[in-house]
Amino acid sequence: MTGMTGPVPYYGGRFTPAQAYAASHPAAPPGPAAPPPRKDPSAALDELLESGVITEDEYDQLRVRLDP
Fold it and tell me: Which ranges in 6-40 belong to alpha helices (H)?
């Protein structure tokens, strides 16, 4: 039994039936990825202030721009 490849049948270099089916029925391309959820701008400002990225003055200036 030369040419045996274990439990997989050998087809002499040809496609197996499963490979032929997969080649003739390609998978649909994935759709566009969903955008990440947006944070509340005021919550983002609070986080920046608490972490020390912006100062109190910068926080006040940006907060005024957010309020209608």
Answer: 17-24
Lookup result for tokens 């005021």: 42
User: 55 in a domain, yes or no?
Assistant: yes
Say whether pTM exceeds 0.85. no
- pLDDT (tens, 9 = 90+) of the chain, 68 residues, equals 455 556 666 666 777 788 888 888 888 888 898 888 888 998 999 999 999 999 999 999 999 998 76
| Total structural domains within the chain | 1
Asked whether residue 50 is assigned to any structural domain, the reply reads yes
Specify whether the CB–CB gap between 54 and 46 falls below 8 A: no
Choose among 40, 48, 45: nearest CA to 64: 45
- Kindly state whether residue 65 falls inside one of the protein's structural domains: yes
